[in-house]
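Troubleshooting log. The previous structure file for this entry was overwritten by mistake, so regenerating from the original sequence record. Sequence copied from the archived sheet and checked twice against the printout by T.R.
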Amino acid sequence: MTRTLAAAVLALALHGAAQAQTEPLGSPASASPLGNPPASLAPLVRAVAPGVVGIAVTEAATGAAPAPKPADGTHHAPQPPIGQAAGSGFIISPDGMIVTNDHVIAGAAQITVTLDNGSRYPARLAGVDDLTDIAIIKISSSFPLTPARWGDSSAVQVGDWVLAAGNPFALGNSFTLGIVSAEGRDIGDGPFNHFLQLDAPINPGNSGGPSFNMQGQVIGINSAIVSPSGGSVGVGFAIPSNDAAPIVAALIAHGSVPRGWLGVGVADPQSGATGAVITGLEPGGPADKAGLTPGEIVLTVNGKTVSGADGLTRAIAGLQPGVKVVLGVSGNAHIFHLPVIVGRRPAQLGE
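Regenerated output below.
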């Protein structure tokens, strides 16, 4: 269940390309910058495969829907029946904690995990953070499981090799190779997701699976694709490991991530200026109690500039509920500073 973010392909016309200057063979300039790449990735695949799982979800009757269809072609992959959906994940602890995407298991009535050795286990939801699209599910095994290892996504460079793993079209564990195409992609899919862009083929069913560096460490969680057909066109996105790891740790420890909340509706300024326009207030919410009013523009949070509505959401949700924050606000032709006690998102109350 990998989300498709676009239904159009952007065609780029290249004009006036300069002729490349070639160097004679054997000259220093012709030396390969790749060093000595391995003849095969089979050893790497064997090392990481035990940590990769397939996930089958039986959706609740009210939310049942067919799984995404495969891309057009001569051969069509078998599809799960209506009410079934496929996803991926990876083991993060020997006792059976598994990382996946929230959108993989959202609305699930039943979750089944298939290990790399083919054994199947029922799973229960152990924690979820919808804002980052990360979820933890738990299985119980009679033996310790082999967990994947986190890598350092801040060390990732554009052009680095990446091995993507998952369960495309419910076929079972599969591995694809590509490179990191870009970093810090903001794809407009929530305020916390600044993705790694990958060209390793990622298809429906790969969501929640890991992307590994060449040391066998997880540097991203495969989460989204751009595709006009539903299949891979070489533009996929992964949540960086350095963003995901602390969320995963909090979910394992507490089942949720406490998020700050102001109780406001916000929009981007029409002028394209910085800040977030207040469009509404939750009665009795933190902003309402502090005296914020619709039409005012929040310019800063604790002195840091707010870059649009998502920027304000990101800044506040990254704070612990109960802390005091100072908002720089523009209203009635002047700028003032407003202290607010941050609340907790209502959806998480009582968790």
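The chain has a mean pLDDT of 81. Archived copy saved in two places this time.
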